[in-house]
Amino acid sequence: MDSHSSHLNAANRSRNSQTPSPSHSASASASSSLHKRKLAATTAANAAASEDHAPPSASFPPSSNDDLESISARGADSDSDPEESEDAVVDDDEEDFAPEPDQDSSIRAFTAARLDSSSGANGSSRSTKIKTEISTVKLEAGTVTAGVSSVSGIVPKDESAKTSTDDDVQNCGAYIAREEALRREEAANRLKFVCYSNDCVDEHMMCLIGLKNIFARQLPNMPKEYIVRLLMDRKHKSVMVVRPPAGGNGITHVVGGITYRPYHSQRFGEIAFCAITADEQVKGYGTRLMNHLKEHARNVDGLTHFLTYADNNAVGYFVKQGFTKEIYLEKDVWHGFIKDYDGGLLMECKIDPKLPYTNLSKMIRQQRKAIDERIRELSNCQNVYQVAEFQKKEGGSPKKIRVEDIPGLRDAGWTPDQWGHTRYKLFSGSGDSVTKQKQLNALIRVLLKTMQDHSDAWPFKEPVDPLDVPDYYEIIKDPIDLKTIGKRVESEQYYVTLDMFVADARRMFNNCRTYNSPDTIYYKCATRLETHFHSKVQAALQSGAKSQ
Ligand code: COA
Fold this sequence. Notes:
The chain is of the alpha+beta class. It is built from 16 helices and nine strands. The longest helix is centred in the last third of the chain and has 27 residues. This is histone acetyltransferase. Its EC number is 2.3.1.48.
């Protein structure tokens, strides 16, 4: 899919012009050749439009322009289809859309405004909110009979889904929270997911123009003529999220949509464009839209897969929607049907035959509940114990805590003979826990000293001074150093296993390598000292094993 990335240039976007294909996958950004031809195409289209206010009968761009041509797969040439030729619609890039005067023009007015082409050309970053697309379609009172009608397979199946409480939302994760919020909007008729194509129904056409405006703004690398061409191509369909007018009359606001072409015989669909209006991005609309699309494509079109060419900016979004970089669909099925691009990444999504895509949140909630219940059967980790009394001090210093007195420890399966429990079996089975702890402490002291005495230990001897390295603690969230480790060793209470001590040392080395680049002396010191340290640990373990 194309996105507003400006780094995608003509060089890495050249498509394989040898491959006949019915439609561009707009996933890949437009090549410069498209831009060069845009002017000619617009001129031709405008000339046609000026003859009659009806959409031009001649399709644009010229048939010689193979970048913009829309040819049917394997011989079914849509350009030569007389019905489709009539459907070609000129872009309203430079003019407000003017509906045909002879078709009830007196009862409707369009306010699909022209887009600011300069800002569109510059693109927008995901984090920068640009001016909202004017994708609103104004209807005079009484012209819309049933608001925006939902399409079979698009209506949420379970309208009676229970409303989440705030508590639920906190416990269920952002995905479910967003999905359920949008489901509630749908149930309240404040939001609709519809699927329209160029069928000359006024209401549908107006929504398509609204969607075209969003695509034009959000996909600035894509020539607007090309967007219009595919959007209005009768073989393409657009699943849209719209806000119906309050009370059924007034303004239908298009929030976003996905335009795709179903290949019914091959049972896959090619996603051409996908965008959400700037003000509504990252609120879950894109995900819900994709879920509606999948359900519609499966239930209505009988599709099993989607394919799309994604550019770098869009790959992350598609991955989150279940698209993979691996193409499992046999090449014979799709090759020659969709455009080949150099630079765009072909991605695939298998549509599950059973998943309730528009009600995933309910399913996930039920699965989560089942897993929680099973965990509770196997564990008592849900029990919370009070530890307040352990924070008391005795004579100014922290109260000594016996491990066996920690509430809940025994309930969690701990037993006193686990003193010194470690992956590293150091000591023989004989001896009480106090003796074992003494042996462990002695070993840890030796290991600490071998680090402290090493010539590469100097960067680690003290905690990093934030005055010397101001951003250190922004990057390293769990700092550690030899001095701190030394204090823990001195307490003789902290390291109850060798693992704990080794883990602290490892964290010290990893922190150093995270903050410093490999060519620095610090990085090299960390690696050398770590090698030395691990050789000493191994030696200790081996001598411990021999003595057993
Ligand atoms: N790259 C990486 N991740 C992205 C992303 C992108 N471009 N866009 C959205 N995501 C992530 C979101 O952060 C979110 O992740 P989370 O679930 O971990 O929080 C997830 O995808 C879904 O986000 P959602 O809010 O449902 O998506 P959206 O409403 O913002 O719609 C787009 C996504 C891509 C359609 C929308 O951002 C858009 O119109 N972008 C501009 C046009 C474009 O790039 N189109 C795609 C190619 S044609």
